[in-house]
Write a structure and sequence with these properties.
- The chain is mostly helical.
- About 65% of the residues lie in helices and about 5% in strands.
- It has three domains: about 50 residues, no CATH class; about 80 residues, Helicase, Ruva Protein, domain 3, CATH 1.10.8.60; about 100 residues, Orthogonal Bundle (Arc Repressor Mutant, subunit A), CATH 1.10.10.
- The chain is built from ten helices and three strands, in the order H-H-H-H-H-H-H-E-H-H-E-E-H.
- It has a three-stranded antiparallel beta sheet with strand order 1-3-2.
- Helix 4 packs across helix 5, helix 6 packs parallel to helix 10 and helix 7 crosses helix 10.
- The mean pLDDT is about 85.
Length: about 250
């Protein structure tokens, strides 16, 4: 720890020396280019360095649809056959990416997923396959999130899925979901949380859009939460399989 701190201090002192001394010794201008995704990056500089820097900050805007089209065409020329794409595919991918995030890496990932689906189907990359690729990527985000979620949150999600399947489209009450949760914990060999803590898990799943819930007032009988599972059935199956596999691995 002491040695690491000393190395960091040496780097800061060296940077301060370069900024303060080098322009005086050499008849030239010293230009330093810093690139960061953090807007507060100057706050982490040595105060002596920060005071001598003449900062000129440039904030780059996200790529728009035209920018993304140019980037995608370069990638297509290098990685795909010219006739592998149906007309309008690049424009559609660029439009989807610019609308959602403007991230070139995500746009390329969407095109790559479309290429994978086209290869499996033995066809060109079509507009319909791009729509399928969007769904696949969206589903993958849910699966990845639940796979890395805490154990109790996974158990709560599995319990809601199993209770919702028994309910056959009917909204679930909190008590019904909690009974399913207790039964799942018994089968999985983990200790169930209290009903109050389980309600917090439901709120967290709602925040991540795994489910929808609303609180209903029943007057003198108190309040209850109605739970809706609106995810596509194929995604629900993937989520449950992922959770069950996680519990088998832990066991």
């Amino acid at each position: 720890m002491v040695a690491s701190t000393a190395r960091k201090r040496l780097k800061r002192n060296t940077a301060a020396f370069l900024v303060r001394r080098l322009p005086q010794r050499i008849p030239a201008k010293l230009i330093l280019v810093f690139a960061s995704n953090r807007l507060d990056w100057p706050d982490n500089l040595d105060p002596r360095v920060h005071s001598f820097l003449k900062l000129n900050e440039l904030v780059f805007e996200p790529y728009d649809a035209l920018d993304l089209q140019k980037i995608l065409r370069i990638r297509v020329e290098k990685a795909l056959h010219p006739e592998a794409l149906e007309a309008g595919v690049i424009e559609k991918v660029a439009a989807l990416a610019s609308r959602d995030h403007g991230d070139a890496r995500q746009a390329i990932a969407l095109l790559a997923r479309g290429s994978y689906l086209a290869e499996k189907a033995g066809t060109k990359i079509t507009l319909d396959l791009i729509d399928q690729a969007v769904c696949h990527i969206e589903h993958d985000k849910y699966v990845t999130m639940i796979r890395t979620a805490p154990l109790q949150l996974q158990a709560a999600m599995a319990a809601v899925i199993q209770a919702a399947r028994r309910a056959q489209g009917r909204p679930l009450a909190t008590g019904e979901a909690y009974d399913s949760y207790q039964a799942f914990c018994g089968r999985a060999g983990i200790r169930p949380l209290t009903a109050r803590a389980f309600s917090d898990l439901l709120a967290e799943l709602d925040m991540y859009s795994f489910l929808r819930s609303r609180v209903l007032s029943k007057g003198r009988y108190g309040r209850t939460r109605e739970i809706f599972l609106d995810l596509p059935e194929d995604l629900v199956g993937k989520l449950l399989d992922t959770i069950l596999m996680s519990f088998r691995t832990r066991g």
